[in-house]
Design brief:
Helix content: 40-55%
Distance between the termini: 29 Å
Shape: globular
Strand order of the largest sheet: 2-3-1-4-5-6
CATH architecture: 3-Layer(aba) Sandwich
Order of helices and strands: EHEHHEHEHHHEHHHHE
Radius of gyration: 19 Å
CATH class: Alpha Beta
Number of strands: 6
Largest sheet: 6 strands, parallel
CATH topology: Rossmann fold
Strand content: 5-15%
Amino acid sequence: MYQRIHFISGLPRSGSTLLAALLRQNPRFHANMSGPLAGLFGVLLGEMSARSEFSVFIDDAQRQRILHGLFEQFYADTSAEVVFDTSRAWCARLPALATLFPDAKVIACVREVPWIVDSIERLVCNNAFQPSSIFNYSPGGTVYTRANGIAGPDGMLGYAYDALKEAFHGEHADRLLLVQYETLVSDPRRALQAIYDFLGEPAFAHDVDHVHYDAEAFDAKAGTPGLHAVRPRVEAKPRPSILPPDLFRRFENDAFWRDPQLNPRSVRIV
């Protein structure tokens, strides 16, 4: 690729859309919300695997060229010098990404886990008449069944959390920068400076008081208006949780990245 490519990944409801909205203020950068590339990547891997009778005609070098070409063609019309592709799945693909893009880095957005669950439940409550794609458009359930669903190994949160731990403890952890939601909204300039330093990019003066991002059509189709809403001004807005106290406590010790003893690879965290 003629562009440099990096990845935004991490946990849901942790600021990845806000981060993309900020990064795209830089005319040299292209960034967006979660897109289809990670899914296409997985499909291609599956179709080139031994489950296909034609896999005998495909070796690893061809697989790599095909997957590399997927990125080249997807971003062929993008004039930006630096591309950021977003998906929670990228943390689980670091060995492949390291081979395809030796200079690529991954920015993983994280947040205190009970507030992720709280944020998803708040979306459900705010859209009481529109079942969400997050729960396969099912109108039933309670806050407890919804929390169990997203926290399960294949759930919106559980999969991303496990993928993050895989990347955090894996051999390519040096490619990883964790950006805490709490830092991003309370001190966005410090978070952005850390990202630019991590990527080796020249500084850019971002306007954190006038941020714009529009995904209303996508969110409406997902039955979850507000899913990718970004406030014009980046700021921390404390609020009480709407989760039952016992459910909140269930997740409040899950921020493993905050314990230095659990960071043997010295992953950078801002």
